[in-house]
Amino acid sequence: MKVTGALFGFASAVMGPASIEFQVANVSNAGFTGQLKVYIGRNCNTNVTSGRICDYKFQGSVSYSSNNQGYRFYMPDQVDPDNDMIFMTYRSANEAIFSSIRMDVNLSTGTRIVDLMNFDGGKDNYLVFDYDSRAKPCNSSYPRGSQCIMDATFDLYTKKLKPHYSLMRGRVIKRSSPPELPTIKASSQLKLTTGGSLNDGSDDPIEIYYGKNCGVNNCVYTKVGSLTPPNRDTTYSIWLPEFDYANDQLIIDYRSGDDLYIKGLTFDACTATSCRNYNLLAFGSSVTQRIAMDYEGPDHPCSNFSYGDYVCQYDMVFDFKVMRKYADSSTIVGR
Question: 241, 234, 137, 131: which is closest to 191 by C-alpha?
Fold first, then answer.
């Protein structure tokens, strides 16, 4: 697939063995029994509108139960401290509270220390990972000066922490020129019908990805399109590339506070020789459930008082091999 996005002249990769030192805070309930998953993003493209995002490499999961303790996690893959991205994701109601997260990279010129919590977008006294519910992940009490999140993107090139980005977003660098429109070989089709009430459409897009060659902890991910449905009670469609409906994952992600109500969502999944139609609102279930897509912020994405008979979500992973929809597992699910 053609990769569409801006190209930047990153310095040649210099990599070395790396470890992350997690300092669990000296506050009540800082230790945790949940699993904080850590990934590297290697060879990341920038401002991708179509094609490969990053080479995602699962590094492992950490769980540290004691307060006021420092722990070191050794990464199985080497790290490029100038170009890689570090992703962390957490899905447990037992909050993890850190006073420091730093990475040491051993290079031929010496050890590079990278203070991840001091990146632009961080710099709080405490970084908290929590997931109390899909609607309000951060629904517990935290010490003063805390930032609570469920997913974190640390970009080692821009030195920015992006807690509100999907893990599928990849590297984003602001630019003045409009993105190049993607060119794809189209065969599959996604159709979305907005709700019939006033303001049920949205001026912001849903982002669409494929996950292929899935392993235990991640897949090979490509962005295949964006769809903006601004008007109510209207059906919108987008052509997408071939899709292996026996093995692949379809991922839909939304990061906007402009509520989008979806009363119809179907997917014509096509290979080179055949197509199958799926009602994604009843995927893997006998019950059809309409969806309200909303993302007000990382601590409380679904913050409207009521969504009526719609269920609020902001990302969905449809695994066609096991016929299961994941809505509480981040966009990186694996199999």
Answer: 234
